[in-house]
Amino acid sequence: MTTLNYDYFNQFKEQSLALKLLRSPHFALLTSFFYRAFIQSNQRSVPFQQLVALLDQHLFEIAELEGDALYPKSAKAYLDDWVNSRGGYLRKYLPQHTDEPECDLLPEVEKALRYLEDMQRRQFVGTESRLKLLLEMINNLVEGTGADQRSRLLALKQRKAELEQQIIAVKLGQDAGFSDTQIRERLFLLADVSRQLLGDFRQVEANFRSLDKQTRKTISLSGGHKGDVLDQVFSHQDVIEASDEGQSFSSFFELLMTPQLRDGMRNNLQTLLTQEQAKDLLQRDTLLSHLYKYLLEAGSKVNQTRQHITDQLRRYIQEQSQDNKRILELIREFEAKAHQYQTLVADDKTKAGSTPFSSIPGWQADIEPIFSRQLFQPSQSESFTTTEVTPEGAAQVDLTALFALSHIDELQLERNIQSCLQQSTGQVTLADVVTHYPLNYGLEELVTYLKIACEGQQNASIDEQQLQRISWQAESDLPAEPGSDEPQPSLWRQVQLPTVTFLRSTKS
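Predicted structure:
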C-alpha cells in the first residue's frame, strides 16, 4: 500500500486527474455534462457523434441562462480538447466490428464525480443495516478462515438454531418482518453498494488495459529470440488471470451468467420494488430497476478488454510467422525508441523540447535528366493463329452434385437469433434457436451458427464446462427401393457441444 506522506500528496497534487477536474476553470461544465452523459444514465461508453449531440444540447441550455460568451467554442472542439489533451478526461477508442469511435470516462474522473455525489446531504443515513452487514462479514470470515473443524461446526449449529427460532416465530405470527424504516434503510444501502460496484468496473478495466500496455511494451523493448519474448508475454497473461483482481472478476462473471442467479435477481428485485417503501427511492433513482442489465453490460465490457489482450498476443505470433522480417524489425526498433523517449521525458520534462525524438541522416535526391532516358520504341504487335477443335463426342459428366451444393444464408440465421432474443428475457441458447427455427441444412447450418457466435457481431457466451445436445431431422441416405414411390424415412441426427448463449445487445 502506498505511504500517504508529504511526498505522495505533493506529487498527487500535480498529477491527479481528479484534482485537475476539480480545479478546472470549466469545472461546472465538465462535471455537469459528464454526470448527465455517463453517471446519471449509467452509460459505460457513448458513441462520439452522440456525445457531440449531447454536449451541444447541454451548451445550448447553459447559453440560455448565462449567454453565448461563456462557452464560445463548438461541442466537438470541447470534446477534442478533453480527449486529446495530455491527461484528458475521456478515453476515445474504436470498438471492434464498427467504424464509429466511442468515448468512456477515465476511472479517476468517475471517482471525482462519485465524491461530489456523496458530498450532497442525504435525507436518510442508515446505520443499523451497515452494522449488521459488518457483523455478518466478520462472522463469515471467521467461519471461512478457521482451521478448527469443531468451532466451525458449532457456529453452523448456532446458525441453524437461530433459523429454527425464526421459523417458529413466523408460524406463530410473532415475526412481523422489517419495519418501514428498516426497509428504506436497506434499500438505500443496496443502491449505494450497487452504484459503487458499477463504478469499480471502470477501474478494473483500466487495470487490465494497463497490463495490456505493459505487455506490448515488453514485446517492443525485448530484443531476444521469439521464444524468450513469448515466455515474458505469457507470464504477463498468467499474471492477469492469476491476480486477485482477475480471479475475482472471473468468479463474478461466471456467477452473473448463471441462469438461476439471473432469474432470482430479477424476480426478487421486481418483488422488492413493488413495496410501498420503495416508491420514494424509485422516483429519484432508477438504478435498482435495471441493476442486472447494468451489471451485465459492465461485466461484458471488461471481459472484452481482457479478451483484447489475448488478441494482441495472437497477432504478435502471426506477425512473427510472416516473411517480411526486416519490416517487422524496423517497426519494433521504432516502437522501442518511442517507449524509451517517453520514459526519458517522463523522468525529466526539461528534455522534451531539447531531445529530438527521431532524426534522419543527411540525404539527397537522385535527379535523373530527361536525356538520360532511352528513346521511345513502339511496341511490336502480336499475331496469333487459332484453330477450332471440335470434339468427337460430348463428354458424359454428371453435374448434379455440383449444382446440389447448399448455400447457408448467414444474415437469415442472425435474424433468427434476434427474433428469439426479442421473445426472451435478454438471452437465448443455441438449442432454443434451433427449436424455434429447425435446421434445414443440417450440420452446415449448425456450424454457421457457431461461426456467428465466435466471429460475428452478435454478443455470445460459450460455456465449455456445460454441454448441450442439439438434434435435427435429416433425409435418409439409403437408396430408394426399386419400383417403390414411397419416400425413405427421415433420420434424426444429434450432436453434443458446449453451451452457446446469445445475449441481447445493450446498445440501443
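Summary: The chain has a mean pLDDT of 76.
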